[in-house]
Design a protein that fits this description.
The chain is of the alpha/beta class and about 280 residues long. The protein contains 6 helices and 12 strands.
């Protein structure tokens, strides 16, 4: 059994501020060690649950955060950007389940450091009318590959979002948000123990977890930008329609195409035109 573990940072226990998630900031180095330790805990749990092979996809920012020498050596590490399937790189190799570690809720939800792909540019995202953040978007991608999402570790808001979309998902709640940048968390040791236990149980139950098809292709994507200037830039791409001052939409033949298009728009949002 091959398992993919996708690791973000905003849902890691002890991470509360944007500075902790950004390369070059003093507290980032400590946060990335916590991130790496939670990833390793999930790897241990996956193998204990019956996995024969574990792929770990670094899924935050530039996808180069996890410390390779602090990761369980049995895992295969996927890093670097850009990647065709973004946060789920490795799923195309054929996996039996996905674990989400350190993930977060979508923008406008009040969870810890909540955002959707690019917090500076993307306000809200809908697929065929279903509002999604990264959890929903990538769960839809997993379903297109016929793969169930088995587990998430996150704050309680992220876990609730996952459970609302994926009723069978196992949740490891490692912190409780009191606003976007404050709250209460388990200790790093306690969070790792919980993640390892939850990952083990989730992988053991992989065969009984149904694939949740959240949307069916073709997919119409609707994207509300944070400001009209971003919609100005995005609609330079001929495939995009301008719905209103801040909102664009476009059609995709598949969820994979939607994911790749949104990630391309995120890169466009860094254009010097918008600075």
């Amino acid at each position: 059994m091959r398992i993919l573990i996708s690791v973000d940072i905003e849902g890691v226990a002890g991470v509360w501020t944007a500075a902790q998630t950004q390369f070059g900031q003093p507290e980032y180095e400590r946060a990335r060690r916590w991130m790496s330790a939670e990833a390793s805990a999930a790897v241990r749990g996956a193998f204990a649950g019956g996995a024969d092979e574990v792929l770990v996809a670094d899924a935050h920012g530039y996808y180069a955060n996890l410390l390779a020498d602090e990761l369980d050596p049995r895992a295969l590490l996927i890093q670097g950007k850009p990647r065709r399937l973004g946060m789920f790189s490795g799923i195309e190799q054929g996996v039996d389940g996905v674990l989400l570690i350190g993930w977060h809720s979508r923008s406008k939800t009040g969870g810890t450091l909540a955002h959707s792909i690019n917090g500076a540019a993307f306000a809200r995202i809908w697929l065929n009318g279903l509002e999604v953040g990264e959890i929903g978007l990538y769960a839809a991608l997993a379903a297109e590959f016929g793969v169930p999402v088995l587990m998430i570790s996150a704050c309680e808001t992220g876990a609730q979002e996952a459970r609302s979309l994926l009723p069978q998902v196992s949740c490891a709640v490692v912190k409780w948000a009191e606003g976007a940048r404050a709250g209460m968390a388990l200790s790093p040791e306690a969070s790792r123990n919980l993640i390892e236990k939850t990952a083990c149980e989730a992988v053991q139950q992989a065969g009984s977890v149904a694939v949740q098809h959240l949307v069916e292709a073709p997919v119409t994507v609707r994207l509300q930008c944070q400001m009209p200037a971003q919609a100005d830039v995005f609609t330079l791409w001929p495939a995009l329609r301008r719905d209103d001052a801040e909102t664009v939409s476009f059609d995709c033949a598949s969820v994979e195409e939607a994911v790749r298009s949104l990630n391309a728009l995120s890169v466009m949002a860094t254009s010097s035109v918008l600075r």
